[in-house]
Fold Guanylate kinase.
Amino acid sequence: MGKIFYIMGKSSSGKDTIYRKLQESENLKLGRLVLYTTRPIRDGEKEGQEYHFVDEAKYFEFDKAEKVIEARTYQTVYGPWTYFTADDGSVDLSKTSYLAIGTLESYQNLKAYYGVASLCPIYVEVEDGERLKRAIAREETQKEPHYEELCRRFLADAEDFSEEKLEQAGIEKRFFNKSLETCLSEITAYIKKRLIES
Ligand SMILES: Nc1ncnc2c1ncn2[C@@H]1O[C@H](COP(=O)(O)OP(=O)(O)OP(=O)(O)O)[C@@H](O)[C@H]1O
């Protein structure tokens, strides 16, 4: 059976960067499980790459059809943004393994939906000061930087990824993203090992 390799970490820990590199990796050949969001697309993002960018009506459509696996809404300074995973027919674990990005909460819900044996957590960590610098640098590249949202998210993450919650979710292994290259090679080796085991 295939596995869902689930990348998690606080904002600006490097999840998207790592996700893109692993997707490009010739020798892993992982399918993509793309989450949905109603938040506006950022400059440089592409539909279907980081997320499926949809409006609220689409979310309600999936919900009505009972196809929402997990959903969470953040009351941001720009209004409510919903992030969700939908059973949109793109996942077949009998055929392949997948790579996804999500939160600790969505990870727990996917475990309940697909079964604990199908999920494999990839938790990425960066020292807080360095992570904040990367977040600001990334925001500065945006046409309309959202600094308030950056601060809100930074504070919310401290709670959402508390040591207690990590322990509850059974996250033991951590991948430190100081050097991207080293972090990527450690994650790649880990995924290969887990693929052989499954
Ligand atoms: N090892 C690294 N060294 C320096 N910069 C890095 C490293 N890894 C990622 N970055 C940069 O840090 C910024 C944040 O990375 P990225 O957008 O991948 O984080 P993220 O975890 O997906 O954040 P979010 O959850 O907020 O979308 C980006 O500008 C990225 O280029």
